[in-house]
Amino acid sequence: MLTKRIVPCLDIKNGRTVKGVNFVDLRDAGDPVELAAIYAKTGADELVFLDISATEERRKTLADLVRNVAKEVNIPFTVGGGISSVDDVDILLQNGADKVSVNSSAVKRPELINELSGKFGSQCITVAIDAKQIDGEWIVHLVGGKVPTELNLFDWAKEVEQRGAGEILFTSMDNDGTKDGFANKALARLSTELNIPIIASGGAGNMQHFIDTFKEGKSDAALAASVFHFKEIGIPELKEKLKNEGIPVRL
């Protein structure tokens, strides 16, 4: 049985780790290099590093910061933010990233997913999807959640898989930063309808929320930020709790 993954997320703006609520009201959460090193030593299975202002500000992810973070970790490391070409991915992988995450650029030009998976392999390509419910329908949003599209979450997720994505990082904008739990109904539907791993993001507030997303949401991995950054949940303690609940984890 595959183990469930615990994935701290480092949202980066101007070289610092930040965290907000519902994608706004950002506050400083520390130095990303220091945080990455701590997580690697305390049992995180993977890290996700998102330069959250890269797309909005029309600039590329900071490759030197990626390089510095990569020096400190010995676990898989995904990088996203402003990636729109094969060349962008090439630079990030050369600087130490194991995987890349694309979001807005894939919606604007879906064939990018085909190009990236064809060049680097699907195991290297994560597609991040930010969505929130509007009139009862999950709608995909772009540019850090600021721009709504006409795409339905589940339709887009299926297309993403067909085009060669290796996994999907689904963030519920409704749940993000609220600490009320993950969007498990939507996650369970994604996990049921797709054949690639689904990473749950948005809403972690306590250990029970992780248990729930693995059991009810059928998630393959759970991503969180503030509960780890501000030491509200320790990863070793979380994994012990998950193990005691019968959820397979790497200790």
Can you characterise this structure?
The chain is an alpha/beta fold and 251 residues long. The chain contains ten helices and twelve strands. The chain has helices at 32-41, 63-72, 86-94, 104-108, 111-120, 153-162, 184-193, 207-215, 226-229, 235-244; strands at residues 5-13, 16-21, 24-30, 47-51, 77-80, 99-102, 125-134, 137-142, 147-152, 167-172, 198-201, 221-224. Strands 1-4-5-6-7-10-11-12 form an eight-stranded parallel barrel, surrounded by six helices. The longest helix is centred in the N-terminal third of the chain and has 10 residues, at 32-41. It starts with a strand and ends in a 7-residue tail after the last helix. The model has no long low-confidence stretch (mean pLDDT 91).
Runs in which pLDDT lies below 50 for 5 or more consecutive residues are none
Q: Specify the structural class.
A: alpha/beta
Number of strand elements: 12
Largest sheet: spatial strand order: 1-4-5-6-7-10-11-12
Estimate the mean pLDDT confidence.
91
- Overall geometry: globular
Give me the strand/helix succession.
Answer: EEEHEHEHEHHEEEHEHEHEHH
Continuous helix count: 10
* Distance, first to last CA: 15 Å
* Beta-strand percentage range: 25-35%
Q: Largest sheet, described in full?
A: 8 strands, parallel, barrel
- Any idea what the radius of gyration is? 16 Å
> What is the share of helical residues?
25-40%
